TrEMBL record:
Protein name (database record): Methyltransferase domain-containing protein
Domain Methyltransferase type: 45-136
Keyword RNA-binding recorded: no
Organism: Siccirubricoccus deserti
UniProt keyword annotations, A-Z: Methyltransferase, Transferase
One function term, GO molecular function aspect: S-adenosylmethionine-dependent methyltransferase activity
UniProt-listed InterPro entries: Methyltransf_11 (IPR013216), Methyltransf_Superfamily (IPR050508), SAM-dependent_MTases_sf (IPR029063)
CDD domains: AdoMet_MTases (cd02440)
GO biological-process terms attached to the record: methylation
Residue stretches spanning the membrane: none
């Protein structure tokens, strides 16, 4: 997934990998299993980021063509190194430089809620897919079972009520089944359906959980980086008390994404 190019919210590939990339890698196969697409089709991965979903498409779906589009040059370079058979281009999800009806699948992973105009992006995805083709995506369940972030923001708000302004569980109401289906139908897609994509997130210890929040990449780490040392330490200490911790210091959380798919009419 991605957002601003360069050094913006999602510009640091290594920091994103430790914060969220390691979990997004596990969700992508579940998403593709749900789509159950045949081999040999034409795909576009919109907001491809470092290529987690693109890599799974390339290895599991054997596409005849795979295009990854993202605004972040650093992410595109990393994706291109990982998936040499695919095409990677700088681009805007709301203004795709792709012809009408040229693809079988337009997909996106963990991107929709970060786009300035999700409705326009869905319209663009539908435009570039042939009649009968599929538009599909998945987003984190920020308000529910994306417990990595829920634990953080529920705790941060006890220390700093201003944390709510950065909480995607509040700021991204589209990341629920009902709003996702409604958005797909509004884009003219048919047979809109959703599914829960669930994985466990295991952390070796508290440091393994906490340190990615100090990387500055992503909404919660960006919020954390803007705090003074006292408030950041208070959040850290309260989290240490509140997180479910095993006898050897391990932390096991649930992580859920919502998948949604629809068909281009025709």
């Amino acid at each position: 997934m991605s957002g601003d190019p360069g050094t913006g919210l999602w510009g640091a590939a290594e920091a994103y990998e430790r914060y969220m990339g390691r979990w997004s890698r596990k969700v992508a196969p579940l998403f593709l299993d749900w789509l159950a697409a045949p081999d040999g089709l034409r795909w576009a991965d919109i907001g491809c980021g470092t290529g987690e979903l693109s890599l799974q498409i390339a290895t599991r779906c054997r596409p005849s063509r795979l295009i990854g589009i993202d605004p972040a040059a650093g992410f595109l370079a990393q994706a291109a190194r990982r998936i040499p058979g695919a095409e990677f281009r700088a681009g805007d999800a709301t203004r795709l430089d792709l012809p009408d009806n040229g693809l079988d699948y337009a997909v996106s992973g963990l991107v929709l809620n970060f786009l300035p105009d999700p409705a326009q992006a869905l319209g663009e995805m539908a435009r570039v897919v042939r009649p009968g083709g599929t538009v599909a995506l998945y987003v984190w369940d920020y308000a529910g079972q994306m417990q990595i972030m829920r634990q953080f923001f529920d705790t941060a708000r006890l220390v700093d009520p201003g944390a709510a302004a950065h909480d995607d569980g509040i700021r991204a109401p589209i990341c629920r089944p009902g709003p996702l289906r409604a958005a797909f139908l509004a884009a003219g897609l048919t047979e809109a359906a959703t599914t829960a994509l669930d994985i466990p997130a295991a952390f070796a210890d508290f440091a393994d959980y906490w340190e990615p929040f100090l990387g500055g990449t992503g909404s919660a780490p960006k919020y954390c980086a803007g705090l003074d040392e006292d408030r950041r330490n208070r959040i850290c200490n309260l989290l240490r008390q509140r997180l479910p911790t095993g006898p050897d210091g391990e932390i096991l959380l649930a992580v859920r994404a919502w998948g949604v798919k629809g068909r281009v009419p025709g």
